[in-house]
Amino acid sequence: MWNDWNTDEYQGMIAETVKIQGYHGDYIRAYYSRPLGEGPFPGLVLIPHMPGWDEYCREAARRFTQHGYSVLCPNIYERFGHGKPAEVANMARAAGGVYDESVMGDTDASLGFLRNQTNANGKVGVIGMCSGGRHTFLAACTLDDIDAAVDCWGGGVVAKPEELSPARPVAPIDLAEKLSCPLLGIFGNEDHSPTREDVDKTEAVLKELGKDYEFYRYDGAGHGIWYYDRPMYRQEQAMDSFNKCMRFLDKHLK
């Protein structure tokens, strides 16, 4: 929980850019933030959103580390080139977007990296916002050995046939039967991607399949309610959902 710590506790962290072997063995950069201390610590893969491998992703990684998690945020846009985060995001959009297959390869490699650390407790989760939320849902349905997943307002989980593309050939909801770990979903009821109807459909499918999930849906909020650098930020909904996220992760990963 936020601000729930004792003032006599030792706290420390280290955060840096590292290189890992991702999809097809490509070396990619990743932001690696982890606590100092004895551990062992759970791992968390943070899949970047479409605004890019940006400063928000780094701050989010350190925030989870503050709560006892080793976090790896892979640069899933590495193959498009380098520049400012917004510039690289534009390169990715111009190329038709990053391919799901590539993101899943990088995510799988990130899971392995975290599990292989000497201070790991053996449990690893996945979290993502926006397109990263969609990728999180997809990872939870297609990758092995994920212990918990958090989809933050992931648009495109539900998709019509005409909305599919070479980069996104499958609607993740069509793979929901393979969901293999507990799933938390955080959504704003005024969002346009996903819409309220998209979230209704996703929840109905998960319920019918008997999956382990928790959805929290907020009035007065749209997309990106955690993004404090933008007008879409919603303080009350952001803090309530962050605390629910921490409870969920602690339950399944600690």
Principal-axes geometry comes out as globular
Major sheet size, sense and barrel closure: 8 strands, mixed
State the low-pLDDT regions, or none.
none
The quaternary organization reads as single chain
Query: Cα distance, first to last residue?
Result: 13 Å
Radius of gyration: 17 Å
| Portion in strands | 15-25%
Class by alpha and beta content: alpha/beta
Widest sheet: strand order?
Answer: 1-2-4-3-5-6-7-8
Secondary structure: helix percent = 25-40%
Mean pLDDT: 97
Number of helices: 6
* Helix and strand element order: EEEHEHHEHEEHEH
Report the count of strand segments: 8
Any chance you could write out the topology, listing elements then pairs?
Blueprint: E1 13-21, E2 27-35, E3 41-47, H1 55-66, E4 70-74, H2 85-94, H3 100-115, E5 120-129, H4 131-142, E6 148-152, E7 183-188, H5 196-209, E8 213-218, H6 235-253
Task: Quickly list its features.
single chain, 254 residues, alpha/beta, 8-stranded mixed sheet, 6 helices
Architecture overview:
This protein has six helices and eight strands. An eight-stranded mixed β-sheet has the order 1-2-4-3-5-6-7-8, with helices on both faces. The chain has 254 residues and is an alpha/beta fold. The longest helix is centred in the C-terminal third of the chain and has 19 residues, at 235-253. The chain starts with 12 loop residues before the first strand and ends with a helix. Strand 5, helix 4 (131-142) and strand 6 (148-152) form a beta-alpha-beta unit.
